[in-house]
Amino acid sequence: MQRKKRTREEAALGDAVNDEDASLGDGDEAGAAAALDEAGVKRLVLAFERALTRNTQLRVKHAHDPTKFVDSEVELDEAARALLAVAAQPQLFPVLVATGAVASLLALLAHENADIALDAIAFLKDATDVDAEAATDAHAAHGVQTLLDALLAAQLLALLVATLQRLDEAQSEERQGVHSVLAIAENVLELRPELAQTLVQETALLAWLLARVQRGAKEREMDEVKLYASELLAILVQSADAAVHALATPPLQGVDALLTTVARYKKAEPSSPDEEELVENLFDVLCVVAVGDKDGRRAFAQAEGLKLLQIIIKNKVYARRGALKLLDYVLQNDVKACRRWVQLPGLGTLFAALVKQSSKRHKKAFDARHDEEHVLGALWSLLRTLRRDPKDAALYARVLAKFHEDDMLKLERLCELHAKYRAQLRAALPDEDEDSGRDDDDGEGEGEGEDEEEDEEALLARLDAGAFVLRQVDAVLAEVVTSDAALAQRAQQLLTLHDSAPRVVARSVRRLARTLGADETQDDADVAQDKAHLRSVAQRLSAL
User: Fold this and answer.
1) How many domains, in total, are found in the chain?
2) Across the chain, what does the average pLDDT equal?
3) Half-sphere exposure (CA, 13 Å, Cβ side) for 110?
4) DSSP secondary structure string, 186-216?
5) DSSP three-state, residue 334
């Protein structure tokens, strides 16, 4: 995250900062920083406090005549910029805090001269941007935490948001300052992730970020600040439940706002890599807000979010990737969403995505495994959810009927995906093949408990090799095959062509049954029902 953040920062600041740094002289600045000690910090702070006091007095005395305090403004600017040498040495931060300069530094954020405020922003950004070396140095780490404690006690978070609201992005320097303020917020969250809740509950940052990503949405205007705002939104909803709920409810009504913003891409394509990342971030936020909060789900349904996803997926635009992911998440354990998708009708769109891959003209967005994983996830959600209640039998039958169409083309595609991911798993982990072990019709044995006991590294290796997608495709395949004799007969033929068999699918399904529910939010009764159904399906498969 640090490397990505700095790249974005450099892009935002541009040549102006590079020229400014060159004028200072990299060698002189590095030498000054290296020579700085406690006495040097105190001298810099004393000069800064004197300059601030003089400027404040002259501004009050000659409020209507700027020529009377312009010289003091230059002195204050120079004194504030000199403190950047301290920002480069975290081990000296306790000395800075002891001088009482933190309150004065933060006071600069409200200075009438934006250039002076930008000096304080530059200091805060550098001081909170902790590199890997400083993070592992005990003295540096202590210094950073000491400074952060002092900043927070002086209301840093509220002042940062007030600064965002004050700066004028029409001015290039102030727009760069906005970008730097967002960088400070991200730095603080990296140092203290728990402050995400405070940022959401005690400041207006969330509202500012939401408004910022919407700015120019109709014309699809793009800039670095909008991209950064979308990234911080994604960080906040992943870190703070309060952010999720706030976006899901009035007055922010974030679900409506985000759907309106991504709707601009239902036909149009992003014009740059930054805009592509913006689209991905917006969908990431929706994947949390429209799924992880009951009010968010309600808002998504009321806004006809599923209809928008259907249009995007059907149009095969760049946003299709995010739409498939969001569809997968929205359908999980939500019977109302599953019913609505079938009734749209959305099955044709989903099965077309199963059979036909995304266009490779979107090189970054084209990821066959990503698309296949979420298409299969959506299909399995439809089957497992609509199967539970007899009232949904007709909708469940409509899903299964799709596999009979076009000479069972969709069934053929499932068998191809089974073979593809089984081959990937066997190639990557020869000793960890999904169909290794003996064939246990009762679901016991065959490494019972193996998935629960394997260490995290082994589990990640299996998932990276395709085990998760394989189990998804096998779950769908098992459900379909055991529902109809004609489909079962055809599946046996297709699996044989791919050097596989129903018993191989059965073993994969048993593995899934054992791990089901580990990360689920559904009711225990539903989990138990799904586990029992999968074991029953596996037993029937083994008998084919």
Assistant:
1) 2
2) 88
3) 11
4) HHHHHH-TTHHHHHHHHSSHHHHHHHHHHTT
5) coil
Cis amide linkage into residue 502, ω under 30° from 0: no
Residues 6+ apart with CB under 8 A from 466: 369, 421, 424, 425, 428
Which of 192, 224, 258 represents a domain boundary (last residue)?
Answer: 192
Question: Half-sphere exposure of residue 539, counting CA atoms within 13 Å on the CB side?
Answer: 10
Which residue in 322, 212, 224, 226 sits closest to 265, CA to CA?
322
| Cα 478 from Cα 145, distance rounded (Å) | 55
State the CB neighbour count (10 A cutoff) for residue 276.
20
Residue 56 within any structural domain of the chain: yes
| Token digits of residue 84 | 């950047």
Residue 165 lies in a domain: yes
Domain extent at residue 150: 1-192
Token pair belonging to 516: 């089901």
Q: 163 and 125 in contact (C-beta within 8 Å)? A: no
In one-letter notation, the amino acid at residue 234 is A
- 3-class DSSP state of 94: helix
**pLDDT tens digit sequence for 248-307:** 999 999 999 999 999 999 999 999 999 999 999 999 999 999 999 999 999 999 999 999
| pLDDT tens digits for range 212-229 | 999 987 777 899 999 999
Q: Give percent of the chain above pLDDT 90.
A: 76
Tell me if the bond preceding 345 is cis, omega within 30° of 0: yes
Q: In CATH, what number is assigned to the domain containing residue 113?
A: 1.25.10.10
pLDDT bracket for residue 17 (50, 70, 90): very low
CA-to-CA distance for 457 and 98, rounded, in angstroms? 46
In a domain, 377, yes or no: no
Residue-level pLDDT at 216? 82
Side-chain half-sphere exposure of 338, counting CA atoms within 13 A: 25
Interval 23-37: pLDDT, tens: 434 444 444 455 799
Quote the CA–CA distance of 412 and 354 in Å, as a whole number: 11
Residue reference for tokens 């309106």: 260
Which tens digits make up the pLDDT trace of 444-501?
Answer: 434 444 444 456 677 677 778 888 999 999 999 999 999 999 999 999 999 999 999 9
On whether residue 498 sits in a domain, the answer given is yes
Single residue among 172, 192, 212 that ends a domain in this structure:
192
Both structure tokens of 176: 């760069």
